[in-house]
């Protein structure tokens, strides 16, 4: 060693270190904001700066692209001021390019390049001050920068130089020692596995010494790796403390999860950053850059609030919705009914009908002829009407039901309607009113026909009629009525065959249907619920109530008398029962009286039904006649169609009503839950995309590829369940009626049972059928997949329920009551068995079952389970029949839309 | 790429053929959302019957289509279904080719900009890649052909489908750079429904840009080309109008078609904003508000052309959208045309703020239209206010959608010049505010 003694006799080096001692190492990460990763390191007096860009798409010539892994591009340069004398060429000289090549080799060995195919990672390193060990400083700095960029590596790459002086290996050479002429060796190590990434030696060395030298360098590298590790931990600890976790439970969960991952690593003894943690780090870094965490935007604040309070808000909304609904029956919250129509309100009429007894005699005569004719005594009726001075016409009709109706025991129906028109002596005869009474097969309603004929005779004698009055006796109740209405309006919506009508009056303004099912009538019951839950104008109900008050007849609605003790709990219960009965009847969508079919033609109509349940009272035929006379005279005064009063209402009693403005909030609160869930879904959804972005990070241009990815997987994973659920719905709609013959052949059941049981079977089979069909198309179901599906399902349900509630509030509300909680809570992560049970219990089919029991309970005719089941079966068959006979929409709605929508949620529960 | 397009075409034609033969077709033909008094097939048939009887089809207030349409169907009335399917097919293919060409141009421009290092460093993630652009033309065709709105419009045989085809051909010829064809198709489109007149500005801008002529009033070549284009446009318009005159040998069609479009005498409810407003208004305010409403449609051309003069194709999109929102008799077919363009602006997705909300609103409104119509007309329990409320919401949704895209487009352009991560002067994060 010429002149300079590198190792003193005491065994110390020139700068006072022991042979194996490292220089002081200081490092910082994340020194630049613009780059993806950066780090600065000082090893003694050697100072290096490393910056990492990427992974990004390959720049420049595309031919460099590797299809299985990323290209690593390294550039090494030295600052002009880095050495004692100013350098002329800071980069581009042979030494620099050699160093770049070495760095490249090192990092190709360490970075998991196969995670980023077709992309490029740029590593730029600059030596700011050179004092020996340039290569190792560069590698260490670059390692830190790569970690900072969140690019996964196999392990830290630590590099250190070592020299050999006087049989002693020296670690971490300084400039003086390097230039002293001895052998020097640079080594890059992956310390955990002890693999060498690069080994380079400059001068000659005896082979015996090589192992010692490498040993020394490796020890030094391991020492360095500890230092680097602590630097990274330090950096992350600071960073983690600085993070403000955004509010909002869903989002928070994600962040906390990520932070937990990080913390578990930062504060644990695990030696290295592993593959799965790197993306999290990357994500957090990105997020903090994008201002995702600290965005002061108001919008975000609102979203945060919504997401944080989502679950409590949903629960509150649900309870509030139910409470609001129950509150509707409380009398102070309702409005008193009042007559809106001027033409009916202010005019006075005097009822003079007095021939009740004669009407009863006619009724007996009618009964006798009916018995003789074993059906409608057409000839007698025609004669009777003609003798009362009416223009009389008949209409015959026939209809074959899709399957036998077991309740009414009919299959092939054939009958005749008889109607007489009283032409208006005054007025232009362009408008008419209808009074109808059914001719039923048993002994019911004979009195109604008698009364109808009596009224016809009486009305004929009056001169004040400005509208034609049609007296109609229809056979086979609703079927006959349907035939007559279709004939009258020249439409044929249900494929029934009937003979055309030969006589017509003007356009029908209003209709009253009279049913007196007992001989002794104690009170009159008003029936309002029509086809598809349509209700007549409230003024018609007001008119009825006003006349009942005037004449002093006991009047009821839903068979319940009016009570005045609203402040007592039993009074309130009474009102709730009345209202619930109305809601259930309306929700069923079937016409609850002959009037129900008129409503479809824009004709206001009610059924008035005589009942016998309050023994102490008795109402005679004359009184009922007077009531009808009064109502007809008022309707006769109408100048335009009834339109002044409400069409959307609920009646907790005859004198009180709840208008649409009062009951809609109850439904609104329920749908609000869906919207809340959607809003939370949305933000989670967005966040999910972020997470995905981090985990995939296939060197993509973030925003762009992200959208595409989402849409392509989203569409696929949503489309198949959507299609399959709807196909199941279609099957449920079509098959029961179509397959009844096959079913009857193979099973010992009647046609009706076959239809109902097939429906139930398809319904149940639907639960087993469509699980995870998306996997066929898009492979493994992703977390994001079900979120998209749920988003679609929840939106679908919101729109569906909204539309339903507009047309038929009760149906919408009842469906919302059971479906909304399901839609709100279902995820694939809830306990499967329990939630499956809950879901089935809240499915549309079960809702119907509950409705049956509740209805029976409210009718004060509680049934046993078995009876309830039988009623349930008959309700289903009635629903299908109503659809094909009268065009009721409840069955198609349930089978084609509600059930598939529920199946989507079911699909989410079993998402894999 | 031809194979998927063919597949989409086949699927689209199958769906339409099935619907044409189903009972739904009759129902759809009656929907006010799908047909307007201007383009209802029922009226075209009526006009044809009048023509066959030797009566002017414009006598009476039934027929308001142009003479060319009636003569077209005079010959192909038996194949009307096929004509409408072909029209849809032409629209889709024309849009497909146009967007393919446009995307090539965009990509080339971006490449030059990248090579000249004109984009800030942190904007690299805004750069569009060929991979994501590859499927855009197909998506456009898909969006047009399988959009329920288009299908409904086609099944209802609304002549709107033909107008869309003409506009699509206009866009194609413009983007291909053929000034003459562009002017001819624009004249045809204008002849059909007046409003496409506003599309001449973006077309002119695009053609100028293509020829590297700066939009500068002091340049002679600018004036030369503008005058050339205007002459071609007006000339072909004159030819078409004269042809119509010679076909019917009367000028009846001018008041009956254009007067009908501009003075809005028919107040049948539709998805537009006119009917309710003019039904409710006192008669003596009518002329004034007619002017206001009609000027409203045309007015946006000026500010938008100034703001978007560098981006004529986006301007075309904006114009079509504005026309379909504010025109006097809009139908869902008009909406379908501009919605077909949405995939072209896929890359704006990250800047859209309300897209989710808006799409929910549009979906819900589409579902509510028939429901409220039923309640109003059939059940009699609701009234016109209900229906109009939904119309209004639907239009607000559309306006939000379009303005959202507009904002996103401008914002992306801003980022491309100023960098993605904006800092305020004091170094804190800055956010862009639309003012």
From TrEMBL, chain A:
Signal peptide: none annotated. Pfam families: Gaa1, RNase_PH, RNase_PH_C. The keyword Ribosomal protein does not apply. Pathway: Glycolipid biosynthesis; glycosylphosphatidylinositol-anchor biosynthesis. GO terms for molecular function: RNA binding. It is found in: Cytoplasm; Endoplasmic reticulum membrane; Nucleus, Nucleolus; Nucleus, Nucleoplasm. Keywords: Acetylation, Cytoplasm, Disulfide bond, Endoplasmic reticulum, Exosome, Glycoprotein, GPI-anchor biosynthesis, Membrane, Nucleus, RNA-binding, rRNA processing, Transmembrane, Transmembrane helix. Component of the RNA exosome core complex (Exo-9), composed of EXOSC1, EXOSC2, EXOSC3, EXOSC4, EXOSC5, EXOSC6, EXOSC7, EXOSC8 and EXOSC9; within the complex interacts with EXOSC2, EXOSC7 and EXOSC9. The catalytically inactive RNA exosome core complex (Exo-9) associates with the catalytic subunit EXOSC10/RRP6. Exo-9 may associate with DIS3 to form the nucleolar exosome complex, or DIS3L to form the cytoplasmic exosome complex. This is Exosome complex component RRP41. It comes from Synaphobranchus kaupii (Kaup's arrowtooth eel).
From TrEMBL, chain B:
It is a multi-pass membrane protein. Pfam families: PIG-U. It is found in: Endoplasmic reticulum membrane. Pathway: Glycolipid biosynthesis; glycosylphosphatidylinositol-anchor biosynthesis. InterPro entries: PIG-U. Keywords: Endoplasmic reticulum, GPI-anchor biosynthesis, Membrane, Signal, Transmembrane, Transmembrane helix. One of its GO terms (biological process) is attachment of GPI anchor to protein. It comes from the Eukaryota. Residues 1-25 form the signal peptide. One of its GO terms (cellular component) is GPI-anchor transamidase complex. Its main location: endoplasmic reticulum. The chain crosses the membrane at residues 68-99, 166-188, 194-213, 222-251, 257-278, 314-342, 354-379, 385-407. PANTHER family: GPI TRANSAMIDASE COMPONENT PIG-U (PTHR13121), PHOSPHATIDYLINOSITOL GLYCAN ANCHOR BIOSYNTHESIS CLASS U PROTEIN (PTHR13121:SF0). Belongs to the PIGU family. This is Phosphatidylinositol glycan anchor biosynthesis class U protein. It comes from Synaphobranchus kaupii.
